[in-house]
Amino acid sequence: MSIFIRIWFFFGLVILLGLWFMSYAFNQQVKPNVRQVVEDTLAENANIIAMLVAEDVYAQKVATAQFDEKIQNALNRKINANIWQHNKKEINQQIYITDAQGRVIYDSQGLAAGQDYSRWNDVYLTLQGKYGVRSTRSNPYDAGSSTMYIAAPIYHQQQLIGVVSIGKPNISVQPYIQRAEDKLFQQAIWIALLSLFLASLVAYWLKHSIDRVRRYAQALAPVNQTPHFHSAKELNQVAQAVETMREKLEDRAYVEHYVNTLTHELKSPLSAIQASAELLNEALPLQDQQQFAAHIHEQSQRLRSLIDRMLLLTRLEKSKHPLDLHEFDLAQLMQQVLDQQASRMQNRRIDCRLELQQPCRIQADRFWLQQALSNLLDNALDFSAEGAKMLIRLRAQPNRTLQIQIFNEGPWIPEFALDQLFDTYFSLPRPDTRQRSSGIGLSIVKQVTEQHHGQIQIQNIDADQLHELRPHLQGVAVSMQLPQLQHP
After folding, report:
1. What separation in angstroms does the CA of 229 have from each of 205, 212, 461?
2. CATH number of the domain at 3-179, out of 3.30.450.20, 3.40.50.720, 3.30.565.10, 3.50.50.60?
3. Strand ranges, E, within 100-236
């Protein structure tokens, strides 16, 4: 069972049980409260009637036909009252009057005249100077058949001369009780449905939030924004704890990975340095000594380049905000990078053609862009034969991007390697030395390009496709596109 179902089920169960207990308790109060209102009304009516019939009781006129007709006309009067959506049409009350000894001298139903009611609570208590009330069932097994009687004393010149008692069947107030119960049931159903719906929303929100934390914890990407939840301090604390744990685990894995890689990459140049150093301990001709010393110097430079590039890649990958954006002229930066490689290009007699559109303003990180361009130019020179052609072009595109193209004449890249060129530590042997690079340079180029929201691709191409160099040349073209500076 999923956590969504569990949360919804138990949340809904608590709500339904709460509603049931609340409805039960409220329902138990409806009937007593209605009867209390009826009793209050009957008590007032009984005292009013006691005042009205006092003279007739004293004059012994209650047993006459005129008195009975007056009472019957009052009780049988038709009414048309819409009380709380219940249409009341008739009076549901009965009256009987006793003398000072509790004997019935008048009964509106004509059944109890002459009977001794002095032992009935309503009459008995009233004759004792107390509040007289009783409830009697016509059917002992049916609570709805009971009638409530409220009595009031009849005085003449401050002397108790009798008791008047008003009776009202409880069944006459049942429509009001039933309507209250029906209304309560309907509202309970709507509240239950609404509560279950809200419980579903809460359960879904909790499940979705937990899933976000789970996906964040399981994500393999090194850069993944920590989820944030509004009005959920505990979930934010869990997410922060997961982030801290992920950072520690990633840092540990990152260190282990780079230590293993560095160890592997350092083996070859260190072995070459060690071998050359051991040979230098022997008595060798000066020319051989110079050759091995140059070999040691070459391998030490390789080690330094490897370490420098790994430090750059680590800085780029582990920094959350590696870019320091500034506005500058990209053409000027490219010219600066070319100047740094001028001696190497001159020594190898590289025929380089420049097409730099000036100015080309861009908002970027000058340091990282310079590193990327230097790596691209290094690779182009490594795979260019002596006296080869090279084309370097910078121009603005209609889609408000700046395009950098570097074409170097040389062998094509094998098809299997085209999709792996930007993978870290992947490299191809150089045509002249047959040695491989660290495989870090192009990885730095790709990450810098992506950090600047740009694109880069490398493809094999014929020079005649560029329309600037002589035909029948082949080589490799690198195309980098970067967003142009947007002026307000």
Report:
1. 10, 10, 51
2. 3.30.450.20
3. 104-107, 132-137, 146-156, 159-169
- In tens, the pLDDT along 142-157 reads 656 788 899 999 999 8
Q: Are strands 81-83 and 86-88 parallel, antiparallel or unpaired?
A: antiparallel
For 284-442, strand residue ranges (E) read 326-329, 351-356, 361-364, 389-396, 401-409
Cα–Cα distance for residue pair 236/225, rounded to 1 Å: 13
SS3 84: coil
Give the whole-angstrom CA distance, residue 27 versus residue 179.
12
**Tokens 């042997």 found at:** 429
Low-confidence winner among 30-34, 44-48, 313-317 (lowest mean pLDDT) = 313-317
- How far, in Å, CA of 154 to CA of 100, rounded? 9
| Rounded Cα distance, 386 and 348, in Å | 5
Do 108 and 70 contact (CB within 8 A), yes or no? no
Domain residue limits, the chain: 3-179, 233-317, 324-483
Would you call 480 exposed, middle or buried from its count of C-beta atoms within 10 A (0-12, 13-18, 19+)? Answer: buried
CA–CA dist 460, 476 (Å, integer):
5
For the residues of 129-162, what is the DSSP string, one character each?
A: TS-EEEEEESSTT-GGGEEEEEEEEEEETTEEEE
Pairwise pLDDT comparison (80 vs 86), residue with the higher score: 80
Q: What is the pLDDT of residues 383-439, one digit of tens each?
A: 888 888 888 999 888 888 899 999 888 888 888 888 888 876 677 776 665 555 666
Contact criterion met (CB below 8 Å) for 315 and 322: yes
Report the range of poorest mean pLDDT among 281-295, 355-369, 449-463.
281-295
Superfamily of domain 324-483: Histidine kinase-like ATPase, C-terminal domain (3.30.565.10)
Instruction: Check pLDDT > 50 for residue 343.
Output: yes
Tokens in use for 371?
A: 């590193």
Confirm or reject CATH 1.10.287.130 for domain 233-317, answering yes or no. Answer: yes
Which of 51, 32, 128, 66 has its CA nearest to residue 97? 51
pLDDT surpassing 90 at residue 127: yes
* Greater model confidence, 203 or 194: 194
